[in-house]
Write a structure and sequence with these properties.
3-stranded antiparallel sheet, 2 domains, 18 helices
């Protein structure tokens, strides 16, 4: 039986952050309750996968999953448990169940509920400890709200907490972000994710801070400061007892995010909810992004809603329905390039023997030019049967990856 990771998307927020281009927005009318009902119905359908797969990790993301009141997250997780238990008659015991929470939307009772229904990892979005930077981002909370949320999670029994941070904000200084890191380290969370800001088009942030409107001098200064913050973050977190295991992710030993490692290792995962992505047997597909279409389909009577579920000719383990979009069977070459792109993001790199066996090829022979070029430049290294980026290489990993592609 193969391992399967499950992602569940909650597309609602109290207020959409100014920089965010994720599939999320403020709820309206009965949208949240209707969506939860539809989501539960979609999960029930997943029993067709349970005969072949054993659930290893679950990640409930968004949006802001903790926007829901008491009982809803429990209902979703219990439906997932019952669906897989009933079909394969086994125990439901994923090693990691994560839920994303926003400070200010959780309390002790909610967190105790999450713990009771099987959640064992909390991800809290702080982004910055600086109030002016939080206002710039359009966040709804203060640093003190995050502190209170961490304390409440500890009280509820959570010993695996992640904090999300964003660096490289306009006008952000090394001193400001250093202060954020210092204040976060005081709380000894087990995992820290630090993402460099990407100013996405079609967001209010882009209208306010469009890089194209900067002078060359302003843009160069922004890049220099971002790079300095990036290097400072690495030094600070390593000295604080964290290991970097992926470009943007740091963890205390043994607390790496197992769910995200499934993505980076190209494992099978199944997404539930609006716009969620999946990969089964090297077949990529995603749910529709129309909230009305999603709710209408999954709130029909069961006999009608699931009557079009069929086994796909692409794979005898892949089931399809009318809401699946962008269905793509990856070619062998696409699989290899994706493996390289994701593998070089990890500090552990690419296991050469595993790569050769999976794709029936010789990695070092096939990519001789690229490997030689970047090892000679000190950006790649081969050790213990793996090819991985050096510290310097991780800083320019996008260029290395593009060269392979």
């Amino acid at each position: 039986m193969q391992d399967l990771s499950i992602y569940i998307h909650i597309p609602f927020c109290v207020r959409k952050c100014l920089y965010c281009d994720f599939l999320s927005d403020k709820p309206s009318g009965n949208g949240m309750s209707e969506y939860a009902f539809a989501l539960i119905n979609e999960i029930k359908q997943a029993g067709v996968y349970a005969e072949n797969y054993n659930v290893g990790t679950v990640f409930i993301g968004g949006g802001t999953p903790s926007i829901y009141g008491h009982g809803v997250i429990s209902d979703i997780i219990n439906t997932l448990r019952e669906t897989f238990e009933n079909v394969r008659k086994g125990s439901y015991a994923p090693s990691e169940v994560t839920i994303e929470c926003n400070p200010g939307t959780v309390d002790t009772d909610k967190l105790a509920e999450y713990k009771k229904c099987g959640v064992n990892r909390i991800s809290l979005g702080l982004q910055s400890a600086n109030y002016e930077e939080l206002k710039m981002l359009g966040r709804i909370h203060r640093y003190e709200d995050w502190v209170n949320s961490v304390a409440a999670a500890r009280k509820a029994g959570f010993d695996n907490i992640n904090v999300d941070l964003i660096s490289g904000l306009p006008r952000q200084s090394r001193e400001s972000f250093s202060d954020t890191l210092r204040r976060v380290l005081e709380h000894e969370t087990e995992h820290i994710s630090v993402y460099s800001l990407i100013v996405e088009k079609n967001t209010p942030f882009y209208d306010m801070y469009n890089p194209d409107n900067m002078t060359d001098e302003q843009y160069d200064e922004w890049e220099r400061e971002d790079r300095a913050i990036y290097d400072m973050t690495y030094d600070t977190l390593l000295s604080g007892g964290y290991n970097r295991y992926e470009i943007s992710n740091y963890a205390k030993p043994g607390f790496e995010c197992r769910h995200n490692l499934v993505y980076w290792d190209r494992g099978d995962y199944l997404g539930f909810g609006l716009g969620s992505s999946s990969m089964i047997d090297d077949i990529r597909f995603k749910n529709c992004i129309s909230l009305k279409k999603y709710i209408d389909y999954y709130t029909q009577p069961d006999a009608d809603a699931f009557k079009n579920l069929t086994v796909s000719p692409l794979s005898d383990k892949f089931y399809t329905n009318p809401l699946y979009e962008e269905v793509q069977k990856l070619t062998r070459e696409e699989q290899m390039l994706e493996h390289i792109m994701l593998g070089l993001r990890k500090t552990a790199g690419i296991d050469i023997n595993e790569f050769n066996e999976r794709y029936e090829t010789d990695f070092l022979k096939k990519y001789d030019r690229q490997v030689k070029k970047w090892t000679d430049a000190g950006m790649l290294v081969i050790k213990r049967g793996k090819v991985c980026c050096t510290h310097r290489g991780l800083n320019v990993s996008n260029g290395i990856i593009v060269d392979f592609i």
